[in-house]
Amino acid sequence: MILPNSTIQSSATVTDANGTAQTALTGTVTVSFPDGTTSGALTPTNAGAGVYTLTYTTKGPGLHIELWSFVDGSGNTLTDKNILPCAY
């Protein structure tokens, strides 16, 4: 269980339709917190092999919703949403 007010590392793995890791993408992540605030656009780190990571501090108990967005060199966009419950 993720604890409120703790630092976490979240990740997303991006592959194409053939399962090939996508490593040359521009990414942003916005986190919506349980108190109704948002993080603003955060930049994930490209960890290689199609894995992108983000470290941030959670807020109070409730759902933390991450919206990941990636753009390739041709302007194609991929989005993914992670919902993380956070409680004591």
Distance between the termini: 8 Å
Helix count from the secondary structure assignment: 0
Shape: elongated
What is the mean pLDDT? 96
Rg computed from alpha carbons, rounded to a whole number of angstroms: 14 Å
Question: Ranges with pLDDT <50 over ≥5 residues?
Answer: none
Assess the beta-strand content as a share of residues. over 45%
What's the helix-strand series?
Answer: EEEEEE
Main pleated-sheet profile? 3 strands, antiparallel
User: How many domains?
Assistant: 1
How are the strands of the largest sheet arranged? 1-4-3
- The structure class reads mainly beta
Number of strands: 6
- What percentage of residues falls in helices of 4 or more residues? under 10%
Question: Overview of this structure, please?
Answer:
With 88 residues, the protein is mostly beta strands. Strand 5 (62-71) and strand 6 form a beta hairpin. It starts with 6 loop residues before the first strand and ends with a strand. It is built from no helices and six strands. The chain has one domain. The strands form two sheets. It has a three-stranded antiparallel sheet, with no helix packed on it. Strands 2-5-6 form a three-stranded antiparallel sheet, with no helix packed on it.
